[in-house]
Design goal:
By secondary structure, the protein is an alpha/beta fold. The chain is built from 11 helices and 13 strands. It folds into 2 domains: about 140 residues, 3-Layer(aba) Sandwich (Rossmann fold); about 170 residues, NAD(P)-binding Rossmann-like Domain (Rossmann fold). Helix 3 links the parallel strand 3 and strand 4. It binds nicotinamide-adenine-dinucleotide. The site of nicotinamide-adenine-dinucleotide has 29 residues, from helix 5 and helix 7. InterPro entries: D-2-hydroxyacid_DH (IPR050857), D-isomer_2_OHA_DH_cat_dom (IPR006139), D-isomer_DH_CS (IPR029753), D-isomer_DH_NAD-bd (IPR006140), NAD(P)-bd_dom_sf (IPR036291).
């Protein structure tokens, strides 16, 4: 019986379906996740008997691929997520081991969390609860979303999901995304520049990829935001200069910052931990039961396809075909 070795701690964590799909196909599942992503050496230790690997953030570098190729047992690597920067896809391609990932199935889950962060930040829900638990009765006031101009930077799957939800709250919504044609914005006001979005929004929410040239919201960009504006970042920590955000919170230029992503995770020693009016969650935007089930089932089906020689819908190919 072929063995699927699961390194990702979140595969099927909140739903039994993904493991069941594998079991129904006659595959044995061996869970091997540690408390932290595995090093290449640790992944190599899991290779004996593995026909498939389900990886999270574990380091599957060229040394792992070489060892897998030498052993000749591993027939597919499945990423339980979208980004494959922790997998040497080119090395895997050279070794003839397909890499599959889970397409973006989490946009609804992240958009839901973003609305939660916005409402909690604006109405100061965590602070109110804290004061109440400490024996007080801190009645706090904040704005309604319908009073605010909300600016969305990055109008992809999650950005659009946030816009759809905001419509239900009667917010006035604008978006900046230079890579989309004007007709992709529907009823949402499109701004031509990031600066315009920052200058005309009471609340800015980020939904673009990381890996930009330096932080998108550096000190100067933050200074362009309206005094007393709120900022939400459920995309990538590196999109903002976290020190500049902390300074803007302390000076009151920013009224609040909610983040589900940080430059370092967990953000040990981050200036955000000491800054006022922050609402910080541990990169949990994608963690709903429904999304967890969909992601796991998608990975399980891709593995079954790979092991049975069926076409792969979600194969990741090397970025540069010529890289050797
Ligand atoms: N918090 C979480 O758990 C979680 C989960 C999934 C994704 N994410 C992050 O959310 C972000 C958005 O994900 P998505 O699924 O919507 O991606 P997506 O690819 O569907 O959309 C991203 C959009 O950003 C736009 N964009 C790229 N560079 C830009 C720039 N410089 N300025 C403005 N727009 C720009 C692109 O044109 C695209 O439309 C990513 O950073 C992703 O890593 C976070």
């Amino acid at each position: 019986m072929s063995e699927v070795v699961v390194l990702s701690p979140s595969f099927g964590r909140w739903s039994p379906e993904p493991a069941q799909v594998l079991a129904d196909a006659g595959l044995r599942v061996r869970r091997a996740a540690l408390g932290a992503p595995m090093t290449p050496q640790q992944v190599i230790g899991q290779l004996p008997g593995a026909a498939a690997l389900i990886v999270g953030l574990d380091a599957v570098d060229a040394s792992v691929i070489e060892e897998a190729a030498r052993r000749g047992e591993l027939r597919v690597i499945a990423k339980h997520g979208v980004g494959v920067d922790n997998i040497d896809v080119a090395a895997a391609a050279r070794a003839g081991i397909p890499v599959v990932h889970v397409p973006a199935l989490n946009s609804g889950a992240v958009a839901d969390l973003v609305l939660g962060l916005m409402l909690a930040l604006l109405r100061r829900i965590p602070e109110a609860q804290q004061g109440l638990r400490e024996g007080g009765w801190p009645v706090l006031a904040g704005p309604e979303l319908s009073e605010l101009a909300v600016g969305i930077a990055g109008f992809g799957r999650i950005g659009r999901g946030v816009a759809r939800r905001l419509e239900g709250f009667d917010a006035s919504v604008a978006a900046f995304d230079p890579f989309l044609p004007p007709d992709a914005f529907g009823s949402v006001r499109r701004t031509g520049t990031l600066e315009e979005l920052l200058e005309t929004s009471d609340l800015v929410t980020l939904h673009l990829p990381g890996g930009q040239d330096g932080p998108l919201l550096d000190e100067a960009a933050i200074a362009r935001m309206r005094p007393g504006a709120w900022l939400v970042n459920a995309a990538r920590g590196e999109l903002v200069d976290e020190h500049a955000v902390a300074r803007a919170l302390r000076s009151g230029h920013l009224a609040g910052y909610a983040a589900d992503a940080f430059t370092a995770e967990p953000p040990t020693g981050s200036p955000l931990l000491e800054a006022p009016n922050t609402l910080l969650t541990p990169h949990m935007g994608a963690y709903t039961r429904a999304t967890n089930a969909r992601m796991g089932v998608s990975a399980a089906r891709s593995i079954i396809a790979a092991l049975t020689g069926a076409p792969l819908d979600h194969e990741v190919r090397p970025a540069e075909e010529g890289r050797r």
